[in-house]
């Protein structure tokens, strides 16, 4: 196990990224446990931070952690051990705290326990997935695939690969497939699949290219109904991890 860790993590310089992911996951699980304890009004658990009656959301602390971690990583000691790992973990903690209230920042109002607040959990899951893929060696837009027999490709080859893979990712996003499109930035095959499949009803692609009552519009609605079990499963998993949203 030690040899594997040194070969796959330490030698390629991935240990700071691993610490970032561990800090990210640990901070998200802790803050969700904390807010659920506060929501349940558990007497022995610390309450919200409200100096002078002002509720300071944890996104504020997240921004502070991200600034400290980012500055540390960019500083002269940012590439040295153990500072690289420490600063990366601090940055990961801050990122989790910010993304956990992403919906609040987006709406500029407290939607944490509302249905809109699920967007925060989506962003955390996506962030963890992207970090995990980077840890496994994925590169944005498949630029690693541009090399031939390990030899560096030309600038034009890199540019072509990036443009083509970006186009597939954008098409997938326009079809209402946020996870597929964003993950496709790191795994181009995922973006290709998302770009070739039917668009989700109501997406920009569907509104522009699937006239109401057309064959494709009907197929898209039927498929959306068939795949409803996936959304229900996702909701159950999110409820178990992050808590159920409040009823309107």
TrEMBL record:
The chain crosses the membrane at residues 16-35, 55-74, 86-104, 124-143, 155-173, 179-199. It comes from the Bacteria. Keywords: Membrane, Transmembrane, Transmembrane helix. This is Integral membrane protein. It comes from Streptomyces melanogenes.
């Amino acid at each position: 196990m030690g040899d594997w860790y040194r070969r796959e993590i330490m030698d390629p310089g991935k240990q700071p990224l691993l610490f970032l992911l561990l800090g990210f996951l640990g901070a998200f699980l802790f803050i969700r446990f904390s807010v659920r304890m506060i929501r349940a009004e558990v007497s022995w658990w610390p309450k919200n931070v409200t100096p002078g009656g002002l509720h300071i959301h944890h996104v504020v602390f997240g921004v502070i952690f991200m600034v400290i971690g980012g500055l540390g990583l960019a500083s002269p000691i940012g590439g040295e051990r153990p500072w690289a790992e420490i600063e990366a973990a601090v940055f990961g903690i801050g990122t989790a705290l910010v993304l956990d209230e992403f919906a609040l920042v987006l709406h500029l109002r407290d939607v944490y326990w509302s249905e809109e607040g699920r967007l925060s959990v989506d962003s955390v899951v996506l962030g963890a997935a992207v970090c995990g893929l980077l840890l496994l060696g994925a590169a944005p837009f498949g630029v690693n695939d541009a090399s031939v027999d390990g030899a560096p490709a030309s600038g034009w080859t890199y540019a072509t690969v990036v443009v083509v893979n970006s186009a597939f990712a954008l098409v997938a996003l326009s079809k209402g497939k946020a996870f597929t499109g964003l993950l496709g930035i790191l795994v181009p095959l995922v973006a290709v699949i998302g770009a070739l499949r039917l668009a989700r009803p109501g997406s920009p692609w569907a509104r522009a290219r699937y006239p109401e009552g057309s064959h494709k519009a009907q197929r898209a609605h039927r498929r959306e109904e068939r795949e409803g079990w996936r959304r229900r499963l996702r909701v159950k998993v999110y409820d178990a991890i992050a808590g159920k949203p409040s009823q309107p």
